[in-house]
Amino acid sequence: MLRTTVLLLAFVSSALGYAVISPNTKSGWTNQGAQLLTWERVRTDSPTFSVVLENQDLDGFNPIILATKVDGTLLKKNLNPPSDGWPTGSNFRVNFVADNGNFNTIYAQSKYFDIVNKGPTSTTSTTTTTTKPTDKPTDKPNDKPNDGKPNDNKPNDNKPNDGKPNNSNPNDGKPNNSGLPDKASGPHNSTLNKAL
């Protein structure tokens, strides 16, 4: 009871001095990284102070000193996490206290605020694969062997006549109009020659 009365009197005596702007009821902290503390002051305030985090609603929670010898004229400071990380929950408060470690000398006290578990952020990478189109076929002649198939681009002199008459015969299959028997007529040639 006596301690509560001393704390209340110390706070009231400096009520017109330092004032914590944030964190507050609407704008709390998270458990990730440094957290922003802002305040106001008057010229007659102590030039420096220490910052203490407390929570009287958590059983077994001991006040944590977050910073010492803070320059009051800065009006803001990023506070690094405690060695065990930020606690999470509701009804936290930040106190500005004297640098001598006397928690009973309170210059200012924040409103109640929450420290929420934000969790680590994850990033997703996307890999895009581009397929190069294949080259279009060219109109150049095929240099590969014909694999035994006939080459349509060149005449085939060894191709059989398929039963058609051979046009290499001088008379082209036409009758001989010379009046003489054809040389290819066989025995008639020998008889005619003997008669002549």
What does this structure look like?
With 196 residues, this protein is α+β, with helices and mostly antiparallel strands. It contains two helices and nine strands. 10% of the residues lie in helices and 24% in strands. Strands 2, 4, 5, 7, 8 and 9 form a six-stranded mixed beta sheet that branches. A hairpin with an 8-residue loop joins β7 (89-97) and β8 (106-109). It starts with a helix and ends with a helix. The model is unreliable at 183-196 (pLDDT under 50). Residues 117-132, 163-178 have a biased composition (Low complexity).
Concise structural overview:
Residues 187-196 have a biased composition (Polar residues). Keywords: Signal. Helix content is 10%, strand content 24%.
How is the secondary structure organized here?
Elements (H helix, E strand, L loop, with lengths): L1 H12 L5 E4 L6 E2 L4 E6 L7 E7 L9 E8 L4 E4 L9 E9 L8 E4 L3 E4 L71 H8 L1
Parallel strand pairs: 2-9
Antiparallel strand pairs: 1-3, 3-6, 4-5, 4-7, 7-8, 7-9
H/E series? HEEEEEEEEEH
Spatial extent as radius of gyration: 55 Å
Distance linking N and C termini: 168 Å
Can you count the helices? Answer: 2
Could you describe the largest sheet, including whether it forms a barrel?
Answer: 6 strands, mixed
Secondary-structure content class: alpha+beta
| Number of β-strand runs | 9
Average pLDDT, rounded to a whole number, is 75
CATH topology of the domain at 2-116: Immunoglobulin-like
- List unreliable stretches of 5+ residues: 183-196
Q: Which CATH architecture of the domain at 2-116 would you pick?
A: Sandwich
Region (Disordered): 116-196
Biased composition (Low complexity): 117-132, 163-178
Biased composition (Polar residues): 187-196
Keywords: Signal
